[in-house]
Prior knowledge:
The protein is an alpha/beta fold. It has 13 helices and twelve strands. The chain has helices spanning 17-23, 25-28, 39-58, 73-88, 103-114, 132-138, 161-170, 242-257, 259-278, 306-313, 334-338, 343-347, 360-378, and strands at residues 5-6, 67-70, 94-98, 118-122, 143-147, 174-178, 197-201, 212-216, 283-285, 296-301, 317-318, 349-353. Strand 3 (94-98), helix 5 (103-114) and strand 4 (118-122) form a beta-alpha-beta unit.
Amino acid sequence: MSYPIYLDNHATTAIDRRVFDAMRPYFETAYGNAGSVHAYGWQVEAAIKQARQAIADGLGIIESENIIFTSGATEANNLAIKGVAEAHFHQGKHLITAQTEHSAVLAPCRYLESLGFEVTYLPVQTNGLINLQQFEQVLRPDTILVSIMAANNEIGVLQPLGEIGERCRERQIIFHTDAAQAIAKIPLDVAASKIDLLSFTAHKIHGPKGIGGLYRRSGIAIAPQLHGGGQEGGLRSGTLPPPLIVGMAKAVTLGLQTRETESDRLLTLRTHLWQNLAKIGGVILNGDWDQRLPGNLNVSFAGVKGQSLLLALQPHLAVSAGSACASQTASASHVLQALGRDQTLAQASLRFGLSRFTTAEEIDAAIAIVTQIVNKLRH
Length: 379
């Protein structure tokens, strides 16, 4: 079977062979439970401690025990948002997020609204970035949490975390960021950006699926959402998965080691892709060009039906029109509509996600395929 060129790396990434090799012993021989009081348990406990430290180092975290392992960024977002709401509702019931957040942030916020909390959904500017002046205007004395993602999963824009964190810290408001698309791809320093809670995952950086985590700054109270054996300091009960944790740490380490050179390479490929797609005509860039993940390109094609475009591309290119989590619905991307795109144009959009395994030859092939299909559909 011939598979299409894979350019959907914001949905998930291929596991790096080095990550797989690091995980393998913890499936085959080092299979103990980290909570067991014997040699098998101690062996695994040591590996998890080392992995926790590697991830902490990558985020500028001094105390590695402030990292809570979860099943992924979705669980981490729920733990952060609902955990803060439950622990701090006596101080206020107002939360702030952005209209362009991932559903793993928006859905918990809507759930909290059903319980009596009030959520402000900040609009974004036409480039996808929030307006900091407008952000300051919606801060209130009863605001207990601000949740703004680091890098958007559809349009790749990078929000000004440092400025947001500074304003939150001045007012003693807890600041959470969903960094699922950002970790090991762009510089992240939780202390410098005054981040109180940060969610991340492994499978966006060539690590395994089913593992992620939440950084929690010391002194920030959150209520656990899973109760049981009291693992992870009582904040996330459940037996830890050593192979996945070791794999995530290896993925983070590899990403950090090559981040600068890989960013330059991906930016070159992305620029080449955009410059050639723009030659088709009627192609609109979605999101800020500069404040953006180097491996992200999101464009809309005027004069094309979205469903026809995706169906025609399917045998040749693995790309998407938006978030993988929303792919089962026929509605247009809420992110693109927040930028001002109408439903027809939003549906006729493609998200290109590049990774360390993307080659220049694949980008050239993608340019030729998209150009041919768009021109054919228009005529």
